[in-house]
Design a protein that fits this description.
22% of the residues lie in helices and 28% in strands. The protein is an alpha/beta fold. It has three domains: 167 residues, HUPs (Rossmann fold), CATH 3.40.50; 54 residues, SH3 type barrels, CATH 2.30.30; 77 residues, Elongation Factor Tu (Ef-tu), domain 3 (Beta Barrel).
Amino acid sequence: MRAVHPHLPHPGHGPVFQGYRFDPSVNSPTAIAMSGGIDSLVAAHVLKRQGHDLVGIHFTTGFESEAVDLSSIEDQLDIKIHQMDLSAEFNRAVVDYFVKTYARGKTPNPCVVCNRTIKFGVLAQRAKTLGAEKIATGHYAGTRTRSNGGIALVKGVDGVKDQSYFLAMLSQEQLKQAVFPLGRMTKEQVRNIARDNRLMPVEEKESQDICFIKAPGFSGFVAARLSTPPSPGDIVLTDGTVVGRHRGLHRYTIGQRRGLNSPGPEPYYVKTIDMENNLLVVGGKKELYTIKVAVGDLNWITPPLASSLKVTTKIRYSHKGAASTLSIENDRTTLVFDAPQLAVTPGQVAVFYRDEEVLGAGIIQ
């Protein structure tokens, strides 16, 4: 009988998440993306205890401050870790998308794009060259296999660390390959497993949403990669009254207050970014609330059975989620919130939930 670690969720308890029911008849190894942090380290440890034949992969993007000590991870886990340079693919799929989206006056989420195109895209394909049909990560999320063979994406049990939002643009094919060992664990349990098994991460920092931006900072990073240098312009109210000057629209996002330097009877916030006229439109906080928004570039994990459905929508990762109605008419999808939401931002990802399940996602227009 396979030993079960006292701090691991027992395979027979709770809902079945992919990665917790190991099939010994599957002969191909499981690849695991290793960052050097505690989450991927514990995820690999959990899979080994369950009997998976593991092959580690550490990919680089070209934006690393220093190299990760892979030999230390290999010694701790007793697995081979392959290093793969994905800098060209990362620049094309993630960085270029990030910069181009800002150039259109929108605010992207590069982490969502990285998961879809890099981790579960290019990296998963590279893993197949090593014989691996599955790829595991340290995300706090889970999957369930439906009776029809489809895969459902569900929230991780740790409400604070849940990362299902960042995985909502994955396809069914990608989810079928995905293994999330930490889906039924809290961060505290992960730390306990690391401590009890003397697992020492070589990367102490938590993952950052925008891992590729360092010096000279956000605005400098974007400006350096734009084909046309950003130019200053007017800051205006919705009635056209000029209240100040901006230093380039790439420096701002919807809901931003800091850095406006526009005194008024009440604090001003960014309401609209008008790229065509190089105007930054601002207003009071009450003007930032939105009841209705269009959503495009939809990705359905569980396709809707009706043209209108009630969902809980997260309009950004830190958002708690809002009750809303999704209406699908021909090629147009509209999201109507039960109550107005603050700073709904074009370019961000709207993720649709039904209880703990992710139904799908789209880009706010």
